[in-house]
Amino acid sequence: MSSVASVHSLWTVAAGAPGKIPAPHIEYTELSPTLIVLGAAVIGILIEALVPRRNRYYSQLLLSLVALAAAFAAVIGLAAGGFGSSKAHIAAMGAIAVDGPALFLQGTILLVSLIAVFTFAERRLDPAAHGNRVDSFAAQPAAVPGGPAEQAAVKAGFTTTEVFPILLFAVGGMLIFPAANDLLTLFIALEVFSLPLYILCALARRQRLLSQEAAVKYFLLGAFSSAFLLFGVALLYGYAGTVGYAGIAQVVSDGAKQIDPALAGTMGNDALLLIGAALVLMGLLFKVGAVPFHMWTPDVYQGAPTPVTGFMAAATKVAAFGALLRLLYVVLPGMRWDWRPVMWGVAIITMLGGAIVAITQTDIKRLLAYSSIAHAGFILAGVIATSEDGVSSVLFYLGAYSFVTLGAFAVVTLVRDAGGEATTLSKWAGLGRRSPLVAAVFAVFLLAFAGIPLTSGFAGKFAVFKAAAQSGAGWLVVVGVLSSAIAAFFYIRVIVLMFFNEPKADGPTVAVPSPLTTTAIAIGVTATLVLGLAPQYFLDLAGHAGVFVR
Amino acid sequence: MNPVNYLYLAALLFTIGAAGVLIRRNAIVVFMCIELMLNACNLAFVTFSRMHGNLDGQIIAFFTMVVAAAEVVVGLAIIVSIFRTRHTASVDDASLMKL
Question: Is A195 in contact with B74 (Cβ distance < 8 A)?
């Protein structure tokens, strides 16, 4: 038993003095987007500790914007330097992939986060409390809502400026997630972006009971699903003897005997592969919000502060689909005949389930949550294509969808009554007669969600369904078009409600936002229309970025 | 002893944890069950590491412990804040939002 002897020599030093351990080689330039964002997050924490309270808001806002813009510039620089195509390779000792899809998704996440920071920083929507402008976040989240501690905090003009560094930490994790090239990095990145999001969900200024409830649900279900993902990682490690994507893919396609004959007895057990892959996929589908694992989505989207909901809905989806694509296309292409039928089923019930349940919703945030579930199904149709077109169409769809989502949730923050945001759908009746501009902008977003031509939603859906049809998933496309039609019904219903109903006497008012939210919404509308009217440049961009490095 | 037995133990502990999450009603106990699931993963990692004769699994176990500790910090903060608001930690009472 030579393998047993070699096992023991690993953790006994008696055999001889250990040699020099080579220092790991880290490509700092190629990892710079992530490093900039995480470094800025750490500086943000220091600002909380050292800078006087009255200066924190502006310094945090400036730091976040500069960091995200610098990281985006770094992504552009890397892409211009050819790291998206000819120089794509695996960095950081096999932990991070620097390639086209990773850079495209990182750029999207950074742009989305930049706009999300604008909505986080908005301070003109709520009426001023004791002469201080307030944002969407609680004055002192640790205080009991309505209790004396909170009243004192509001009176003193406290604000939770910690949201900016927390957001940056989440963005840092999201940047690593689609680029992770081994299962350990995947798991750590998942936790790095999930834990800050759990906290952000609990911080709403208004309706904090709902907000805390959303946070508890998101946290318990999120931790539950990441435990499943981790057990899947353990089983895949047991299967392949490594957690690196390339190593696992090699064992999947060649079998264990060719890789290491000595370990053929303990490796290459197909039961471990199938169960492990299923559990890891489950963890990722939870983050994506696909149907059997979607239970958290409506509650969390409704309860979380609306700027956080917008950020989460857009950026988490981009990061999670990136990781899902890389796992299916790099690690498991050798067993695509096993996972394709399962993903077919998931995509179909996600599209139909999201679209059908959304019809019955009476709250605008829950409606958008179910619509995001339906959209996850459409994107899954592109994932199933297992072709280069599939990857690039999913990349394009994610970019288009995230700007629409962010803009739609930014509009939701504007429609307010005495209790804060008026999210009940019936209160939106007649909004188009009172504030035609806001209602028209929201209508543009809804039409984009529905996939009406001349909006980005149509270009995205067309690309995804085309890729799916070309790969032989014709029935999936039929189901997709059917559920798009169902979904269009409830989007159009909201438009009819806004424009063709009489406004109620006690209806909500539309707050006049500061330039921050105005900019966010304007960028959302511009992206929606530009990607809809002239999608070719961006489709080409996604097409160039469609090849994974192995 | 055959190391495969530890894998069975890990699977058993994971199942107990998962069942506990679904059955128990107190948020703290649910959370403890999730920690049990993470520890079951650790046991599986270490056992596979022993079987394969490489150290990856043992390193991953350390990472998992750190993640579990970070999760406790965030999770208990959220659970304590909702407990102070509602004077209960039952996950059944957190039902303001329904379909």
Answer: yes
